[in-house]
Amino acid sequence: MAPRRTAQVAITAFLLLGCAFVLSPFFAAILFAGTVCITTWPIYQSLHRRMGRRNGLAAISMTFLLTAVLLVPMIGLAASLTDAAMEAVDWARTAIEQSDGRPPEWVKEIPVVGRDLDAYVRKLTHSQQEMRKLALQAVEPARKFALGLGGVLGQGLLQITLVLFIGFFFYRDGATIYDQLETGAQRLGGELGNRLLDLAANTVKAVMIGIVGTAAAQALVALVGFVIAGVPGALLLAAGTFFLSLVPVGPPLIWGGAAFWLYQQGESGWAIFMVLWGALAVSSVDNFLKPFLISRTASLPILLIALGAFGGVLAFGFIGLFLGPTFLALGQALFREWTAHDAVLPPVTTDESQ
Fold first, then answer.
1. Which domain holds residue 219?
2. Is the pLDDT assigned to residue 130 strictly greater than 60?
3. Mean pLDDT rounded to a whole number for the chain
4. Are 58 and 44 in contact (CB under 8 A)?
5. Is 246 among the domain residues?
6. Looking at the domain assignment, is residue 37 inside a domain?
7. Are 142 and 107 in contact (CB under 8 A)?
8. How far apart are CA 172 and CA 105, in angstroms?
9. How far is the C-alpha of 198 from the C-alpha of 336, rounded, in Å?
10. Is Cytoplasm found in the keyword set (predicted)?
């Protein structure tokens, strides 16, 4: 009997490893598709009821809706960002070639450090030809970085496309999949397993709504400020704010750069407006909106979000920007629930007679 049991375990382990090996290239897309489907499931249920409870029609309608919301804007962002990066590199090359080596006049006008910085740059540019040569050599790595950025965005588009394809089947068969997961959780952990499954679904939903909702709100508020101040490329900057909002001190890089550009153009008043708008409106959204959206789940420390965003990108690519914080928050919530459950277990007693 024992050899038969051992053979069954070995065959099962071999099959699981084989399945994991086959699905490993799509692991991130499958996880993110599940996360998106869990988050948007109430919308799918509404469509499902309106379409006569036809699973296939509701699933394909939901997939088209997500395509319009996720994929189409990303295509425009990828094209615009790549073109803008290449134009910036070309502008830098032209400016270096035409420069006489002296710093711009606006450097002196920088408060507190302007004059010292101007003197330091002039000292560095004493040998104009050598400095120009070094600057032109630095342009080529910048060009490669811009091309690499375009490659990352292209990879992100492919990942999002795969997520949408997988998501269609998750929507169509979602009820069956959840019943199977519930049965498995019941067999593995009993009542605790079911409770952890519900906690996982609620945490994923709340964290995704909190992260994406806060990012969208910050991007919208930033867009209004960019339009009012007359900053060019407002939509592109707002999209950058959306993605950088997942990283601590991310949005100030966008609205701070816009304020600096306005100051450089001689628009000191609008530059001050942009700084105030960014500090009081854009960055403050994160302080009250995210806690409100994630109010019913475990809190998300800044460190957790930062590690999740950076580590998620390294582990899963572009979609890891959203997937990383979600997984860390889910792990934190499950660990807290597990330890809280263990805390109420009766203490282990020993038999003194032995």
1. 192-339
2. no
3. 75
4. yes
5. yes
6. no
7. no
8. 63
9. 14
10. no
Tokens describing residue 136: 């032109």
pLDDT digits (tens, 9 = 90+) for 217-249: 888 899 999 999 888 878 778 877 887 776 666
CA distance 87 to 91: 6
Q: 344 Cβ partners below 8 Å, 6+ apart?
A: none
* Residue that the structure tokens 């189409």 belong to: 72
Locate 350 and state its tokens. 């020993």
Tokens, residue 222: 């930033």
**pLDDT over threshold 80, residue 14:** yes
The amino acid present at 163, given as its one-letter code, is V
301 has a pLDDT exceeding 70: no
Helices (H), the chain: 2-23, 27-50, 55-66, 72-98, 114-124, 128-172, 174-229, 234-244, 251-264, 268-277, 285-293, 302-316, 320-343
Is-above-0.85 flag for pTM?
Answer: no
Q: In one letter, which amino acid is 71?
A: L
CB-based contacts of 156, cutoff 8 Å, min separation 6? 74, 78, 317, 318, 319
CA distance 260 to 88: 16
Question: What is the three-class DSSP state of 263?
Answer: helix
Q: Is-contact 289 267, C-beta < 8 A?
A: no
Alpha carbon distance 2, 16 (integer Å): 21
Q: Do residues 83 and 103 lie in contact, with contact meaning Cβ atoms separated by under 8 Å?
A: no
Does residue 313 belong to any structural domain of this protein? yes
Which residues 6+ apart lie within 8 Å of 350 measured at CB?
Answer: none
185 occurs within a structural domain: no
Of 305, 241, 320, 330, which is closest to residue 278 (Cα–Cα)? Answer: 241
The amino acid that residue 292 corresponds to is F
Number of domains composing the chain: 1
User: Residue 112, SS3?
Assistant: coil
